[in-house]
Specification:
The protein contains 2 helices and 18 strands. It has about 220 residues and is mainly β. Strands 1, 2, 3, 4, 5, 6, 8, 10, 12, 14, 16 and 18 form a 12-stranded parallel sheet that branches. The protein has a 6-stranded parallel sheet with strand order 7-9-11-13-15-17. The longest helix has 15 residues. The radius of gyration is 19 Å and the shape is elongated. The protein starts with a helix and ends in a 5-residue tail after the last helix.
């Protein structure tokens, strides 16, 4: 009876609703001359360097980035819409308050990624290695991160709806003050979670629950003797 009830409950978890990204006809730009606040449509950037550029408020629509370096590029308030980013590299990735809508990111290599107060809708990340991802205060809707290694993922005070972390290895997860709905952590490997008072809406599997049990007990002041 309990098993049937648990299965029924699990079946109600809503997966991220991801829109396939299919940019139209693209033109190649081997030596991009990018400027802050400009709009770029239908461009393919390959093995280009945007390191250190001031691109705050810049809009990229239906663009493709392959092997592009964004180290210390200022992308505050930038917009990526209907874009594909593959093998993008940034020891320091600065994109606070950026907007990502219908975006696919493959095998990123980010060190410190400052993405706080950003807005993500229909975003997929596959593979890659991310050291520190700051998504504090972000709004995440329909997001899937798969087969990714993340040292620290800060989701403090974020609003996350229909988010799935599949087959990811995560060191530290911080949910302090977060508002979660259909946040699917099943299959992910994590070392520790903070913000235990903000886990309503989190979905875990049986094994993960055993890992959470001592943390929850300590949080609630339960003594196991």
């Amino acid at each position: 009876m309990v098993r049937h009830a648990a299965a029924a409950k699990a079946s109600k978890v809503t997966a991220p609703r991801l829109v396939p990204v299919r940019p139209g006809e693209l033109r190649d730009d081997p030596a991009p001359d990018l400027h802050s606040g400009e709009r770029y449509d239908g461009v393919r950037y390959s093995r280009a360097a945007a390191d250190g550029l001031e691109l705050n408020g810049t809009v990229f629509a239906e663009c493709e980035f392959t092997g592009v370096s964004f180290n210390e590029t200022q992308l505050r308030g930038a917009t990526f819409r209907d874009c594909i980013l593959t093998d993008v590299y940034a020891p320091v990735f600065t994109a606070a308050r950026a907007s990502l809508r219908d975006v696919e990111i493959g095998n990123p290599r980010w060190g410190s990624a400052e993405l706080y107060e950003s807005g993500w809708q229909s975003v997929r990340i596959d593979g890659g290695k991310l050291d520190y991802v700051n998504l504090r205060g972000a709004k995440l809707t329909d997001v899937q991160i798969s087969d990714c290694i993340i040292s620290e993922l800060d989701l403090g005070s974020c609003t996350a709806t229909r988010v799935a972390l599949k087959n990811c290895t995560i060191g530290t997860l911080d949910f302090t003050g977060a508002k979660l709905k259909d946040f699917d952590l099943r299959g992910a490997d994590f070392r520790t979670i903070s913000g235990l008072g903000s886990l309503t809406g989190l979905v875990v599997d049986d094994y993960q629950l055993t890992l959470l049990a001592p943390l929850l007990a300590a949080h609630l002041g339960i003594v196991v003797a």
